[in-house]
Specification:
- With 263 residues, the chain is an alpha/beta fold.
- It is built from eleven helices and ten strands.
- The chain has helices at 3-14, 54-64, 67-85, 101-105, 109-120, 133-138, 140-152, 184-187, 194-209, 222-230, 247-256; strands spanning 20-29, 35-46, 50-52, 94-99, 127-132, 156-162, 179-182, 213-216, 235-236, 245-246.
- The mean pLDDT is 90.
Length: 263
């Protein structure tokens, strides 16, 4: 069996064998620098190959359709995890989950989200579903219907990787979006000149004029945080604040208010 075919076959059984797990990328308030949510990122610990990076196994999952059952597991487990946090603090972090293109297209997505919320007891307002800009703009009319149905469940919706797809900010008027995530490629270019900085500033100003909160991804340098904070960016993610964390580190933070940021 070819290596890729073998790995794909093994991925099909990884769920049943408890080889998939989460790490969490915290999202921080740009003013208080407090962690307000955590993005659940799937990882695979292969029994022989060790850590298999998402860039390898996620395209396989998309191609084979395994992304739908994997996505169902992610929704359920992430909601269960976030519901546990509510036992330890009155205002624990929300949980963010990425929704893949085939999940968005599937007939079961609404039922899957509803089932995860019902089984976990999680307040829907503490679940943020992240859909990439390019996936939304493939079929805007169908995406609008699906996002509207998801919004009716009470969850929050975020457009991920904004700026690299096919839409403009004017399109956001048509979608029930709560949050916009500026792609890390634009954040990394802030220092390159006034044009790049102006582009990011414009996204933030226009999004906020539509009452959409803004998250900047990939913040790694203090000057990036300072600029984004100065132009009104609400939240940030990136190595400047924290690398992705194992579940127990986030749980300790919730239980004991252990700082996620160095003093």
């Amino acid at each position: 069996m070819r290596a890729n075919a073998l790995l794909s076959y093994q991925l099909e059984h990884a769920l049943a064998k408890d080889e998939l797990y989460f790490v969490f990328q915290p999202k921080f308030d740009s003013c208080s620098r407090e962690a307000v949510s955590a993005e659940a990122l799937i990882r695979w610990q292969h029994p022989k190959r060790g850590h298999v990076v998402p860039d390898v196994f996620m395209p396989m999952a998309e191609e084979t359709g395994l992304i739908v059952p994997i996505g169902q597991w992610v929704l359920m487990e992430a909601c269960m995890q976030a519901a546990r946090w509510t036992h330890y603090a009155p205002e624990p972090p929300s949980i963010s989950v990425n929704v893949a293109a085939k999940q968005l297209d599937s007939d079961t997505l609404i039922e899957d989200v509803h089932a995860a919320l019902q089984a976990s007891g999680l307040d829907p307002r503490r679940l943020i579903l992240e859909i990439t800009e390019s996936d939304v703009m493939r079929t805007p009319e169908l995406a609008l219907a699906k996002l509207t149905a998801l919004k009716s469940l009470g969850v929050k919706l975020a457009i991920d990787d904004f700026g690299i797809g096919y839409s403009s900010l004017s399109h956001l008027n048509y979608f029930p979006v709560d949050e916009l995530k500026i792609d890390r490629s634009f954040v990394s270019r802030i220092a390159e000149g006034e044009r790049a900085a102006t582009f990011v500033r414009t996204i933030i100003v226009l999004a906020k004029s539509m009452n959409i909160e803004v998250v900047a991804e990939g913040i790694e340098e203090p000057f990036q945080h300072q600029f984004l904070h100065s132009v009104g960016c609400d939240f940030g993610q990136g190595y400047l604040y924290s690398r992705s964390l194992p579940a127990n580190a986030v749980e300790d933070f919730v239980k004991y208010s252990t700082p996620l940021l160095p003093h």
